Amino acid sequence: MTQARETGPAAFQRVGSWIQRLSCSRMSTPPVGVLSEALAGAVAANALSRTDSQRVTVIGAGMQARLQVEVLTLVRDIRQVGVWARHAARRIL
Q: CA–CA separation, 62 vs 55, rounded Å?
């Protein structure tokens, strides 16, 4: 069964609400480029992933990876996060 995709003004309103919710989250304000990449990932996940997805794996453990996971929680009920990083000590988000 395919899920309906939002387009037009409704889709922009949803992205605006994601930004507003993110700005109230526990993270400090990220650079605009990093935020736009994370939001693009959330839009893609919203359109392409199963609605009941609860696991995500990220490559890297820097600001981009942390923000990506934070933004994904706005569109999916993420309960498990896998992290790959070159240094084992950095694998904790």
A: 19
Cα separation, 41 vs 92, whole angstroms: 21
Prediction pTM value:
0.65
State both tokens at 12: 């922009």
Integer CA distances (angstroms), 42 to 38, 39, 88, 89, 91, in order? 6, 5, 26, 27, 21
Each residue's pLDDT, cut to its tens digit, for the chain (93 residues) gives: 445 555 456 655 666 666 666 655 555 666 777 888 888 888 899 899 999 999 999 998 888 888 889 888 888 999 999 988 888 777 765
φ, ψ of residue 64 to 5 degrees: the values are -60, -45
